[in-house]
Design goal:
Elements (H helix, E strand, L loop, with lengths): L11 H11 L20 H9 L7 H8 L3 H7 L1 H10 L6 E4 L8 E5 L5 E5 L6 E4 H18 L4 H22 L4 H6 L2 E2 L3 H4 L6 H16 L10 E4 L2 E4 L6 E3 L12 H11 L6 H7 L3 E8 L10 E7 L6 E8 L4 H6 L7 H12 L8 E7 L2 E9 L14 H20 L4 H8 L4 H29 L8
Antiparallel strand pairs: 1-4, 2-3, 3-5, 6-7, 8-9, 9-10, 10-11, 11-13, 12-13
Helix pairs in contact: 1-16, 3-4, 4-6, 6-7, 6-15, 6-17, 7-15, 7-16, 7-17, 10-15
């Protein structure tokens, strides 16, 4: 780092002017456009192509979960939306983006300081990209959830517009805060009233507190009952197929047979990516069992495992999740190659965007018979919980969407460049309305793709778990 004369530094006003100038390159109004797909684009073929790089025996579970509802389909089709966004107009204002910022990828977890915090909690698709990609995915997920929950078209669009407005206003506020304050800003669930007092009115804060505390009550701070049993004094993971299957109980034909050696290498060597103090703590635990685990919707089919470790004795248990990380949908859609491996990309992105990342978050790359594979590792049970979107009525969905938008703005602000974004977004509602228009258009496209998946099942193109 070289020292500079402070008078030569670019000023916030100059950065805002740069953002305003960018409107002439990519107008805010144009962000509402949804580019038509080419005649040869087959969304089902694209999903099948993505599946060729995943564990084949798990794909029927993935498709089953996507068929549950249009919202479930949306959760599993991040690549399709990334393709559509890459095809259309995008700003050149890039930050670290989540890449899959739908409503269910926000939630509650316990920080290293044992505080319950609210933030984005899934970074499998994180990458560098145009900021509005995340805003569009969040706003569209709100519109889809609203339709699923029985709200009319006007209400659906109003929710999307409100989320975009909250994102814009939150970034504006953050652009006038110190860099350190932005970096350390966090939503502490136990202090939601004081943390967001300047952002929401008292009635909204009460509603949000109710929604979040409901999620906390259903959290996963402890392993579910029955996950571990003791045989001859030794703890082992209990099979709960198809969600949890110990490695020694996998079908002999499974492509994951033999994963124990890979996992031993990952757990041993991933600690090199941790801070020295966490490395010392992790080294006091001994891995004793492992199981294949099925998680989420979009992630189903990736190699994912739960590792049981013990500390002082067999009752002192600790759990890690080891998950495959490949190329992000952002990079796939844009035809780009990352300089980072998948695991390093996920860890880097999460540490930039998340205010209190998992202290055991790290990565390791291994050479497997099928080729090089990258994994990232995190603590398995960290009081992680998601709000049940399908149970939110119109008012709560409105407030919750604004909360997610605030968290997204804060995550983007950690990349820097908030003054440029402030200048581009402006004081009016042009951006907000454009996002609303896009969201409603994409809601219809998502329904078309959902129906196409149904047809693919009936035609036998894909298999679904029974």
């Amino acid at each position: 780092m070289s020292f500079r004369d402070v008078t030569t530094l670019p000023t916030p006003s100059a950065a805002r002017a740069e953002g305003r100038a960018h409107r002439k390159v990519v107008s805010r109004h144009s962000l509402g456009d949804l580019e038509p797909r080419g005649t040869g684009y087959d969304p089902i073929a694209r999903l099948i192509e993505l599946g060729t790089h995943r564990v084949q025996e798990l794909l029927p579970i993935r498709y089953e979960r996507m068929l549950a509802s249009p919202f479930g389909f949306f959760r599993g089709s991040a690549l399709l939306m990334a393709d559509d966004l890459a095809r259309g107009v995008s700003s050149n204002i890039e930050v670290q983006i989540c890449g899959d910022a739908h409503l269910s990828n926000f939630g509650i977890f316990r920080s290293a300081e044992q505080r319950l915090v609210y933030d984005i909690n899934d970074f499998d698709e994180t990458d560098c990209g145009s900021f509005e990609w995340d805003v569009k995915r969040l706003a569209t997920s709100l519109a889809i959830a609203a339709e699923q929950n029985g709200l009319n078209k006007d209400q659906q669009e109003a929710l999307a517009v409100a989320a975009a407005r909250e994102y814009r206003l939150s970034l504006r506020r953050l652009a006038h805060e110190s860099l350190i304050k932005v970096w350390y800003s966090v939503l502490d669930v136990d202090a939601v009233m004081s943390e967001l007092g300047s952002f929401f009115n008292e009635e909204t804060l009460h509603d949000l507190d109710t929604v979040l505390q409901t999620a906390v009550d259903k959290s996963s701070s402890k392993p579910p009952r029955g996950l571990v049993e003791w045989l001859d004094g030794r703890p082992t993971l209990v099979s709960d197929p198809p969600l949890v299957v110990p490695l020694d109980q996998l079908d002999p034909k499974s492509e994951l047979v033999g994963a124990r050696g890979t996992l031993s290498d990952v757990i041993r060597d991933y600690s090199n990516s941790l801070s020295p103090d966490r490395r010392v703590l992790l080294n006091q635990f001994t891995p004793v069992d492992a199981a294949r685990k099925v998680v989420g919707v979009g992630s189903v089919g990736t190699r994912c495992f739960i590792i049981l470790l013990v500390g002082r004795n067999a009752k002192d248990t600790f759990f890690l999740q080891v998950k495959e990380a490949s190329t992000s949908v952002v990079a796939l859609a844009r035809g780009l190659n990352s300089e980072l491996s998948g695991g390093a990309r996920v860890v880097r992105g999460q540490k930039i965007m998340q205010a209190t990342p998992d202290p055991f978050l790290g990565w390791h790359d291994v050479e497997e018979p099928t080729g090089p594979t990258s994994y990232y590792v995190r603590e398995q049970f960290d009081h992680r919980s998601a709000v049940r979107v399908e149970q939110l009525d119109g008012d709560h969905l409105f407030d919750y969407g604004r909360l997610c938008a605030w968290a997204l703005a804060r995550a983007h602000a950690r990349s820097g460049g908030t003054s440029v974004l402030e200048g581009y977004l402006g004081k009016g509602d042009t951006f907000d309305q454009a996002i609303g228009v896009f969201s409603m258009a994409y809601l219809e496209r998502n329904k078309e793709d959902y129906e196409a998946l149904k047809s693919a099942v009936s035609e036998g193109r894909i298999s679904v778990a029974q």
